Amino acid sequence: MTGILVLAGTPIGDISDAPPRLAAELTGADVIAAEDTRRLRRLTQALGVQPTGRVVSYFEGNEAARTPELVEALAGGARVLLVTDAGMPSVSDPGYRLVAAAVEKDIKVTAVPGPSAVLTALALSGLPVDRFCFEGFLPRKAGERLSRLREVAEERRTLVYFEAPHRLDDTLAAMAEVLGTERRAAVCRELTKTYEEIKRGPLGELAAWAAEGVRGEITVVVEGAPDKGAEELDADELVRRVQVREEAGERRKEAIAAVAAEAGIPKRDVFDAVVAAKNAARSAP
Q1: Range with lowest mean pLDDT among 79-93, 112-126, 138-152, 251-265
Q2: Is residue 13 over pLDDT 90?
Q3: I want to staple 173 with a disulfide (CB 3.0 to 4.6 A). Which of 35, 112, 207, 213 is the partner?
């Protein structure tokens, strides 16, 4: 009989947010794979439990190499508990490789649901929550970061990002540049911790605020693109949308078709606007 892989959510700040089942899983697991064994030790001490299973590290640096070892333990009948430093494993944390490998071997995977920075920030942001997408961390390099943002410039769903505090000012400035200075957003800092702070406002204002320096763990929630009707989209806006898609890597033909579909107008209208803008640029002094 094969074992079972348990993904366990851990507190993102306040230790009392630990799900009740977490203590039982920590004491009953045959193997505990932890992103940071020292933080695991602090967690078990805070919960007043003593693991009886084998504890191994499982972090970005050894995830690929350790996954086969854990799959072997699972195949042998072990109950393997995966915990990361905070929140749910595999959500911008180690875990995806192990889950995929276990699924491939028909090994059961379950979860102890727990705190999530993504959902907590989304709920507190004051922005629409009916449809959203999680984008993880943006690239560190400025050019790649801008390119990734251009890919979602017309995304109507609310966007959720993680970011390091020392990169927050550059990220918000890039968001303001690509998405617009008036696009609403919320910076959620130190969620559930003593110095929790939710800073809401237009991207331009938030970028200026972050330039002074921000500390702590950061989740950024950004309003989706406005739903503009066809009558609201003038030629300049149609051209801008095509350019955003081209800069994100789409061919012009596909970009024109996509913009026409979004606006609910014939592709020819978008094509004519692009050609007109191109001719105007050529004739400009």
Answers
A1: 251-265
A2: yes
A3: 207
Phi, psi for 40 (deg, rounded to 5): -60, -40
Report yes or no: 92 and 136 within 8 Å, Cβ to Cβ: yes
pTM of the full structure: 0.77
The phi and psi torsions of 247 (rounded to 5 degrees) equal: -65, -25
For 186-231, the pLDDT digits (tens) are 999 999 999 999 999 999 999 999 999 999 999 999 999 987 654 4
How far, in Å, are 41, 73, 133, 231 from residue 1 at the CA level? 30, 12, 38, 63
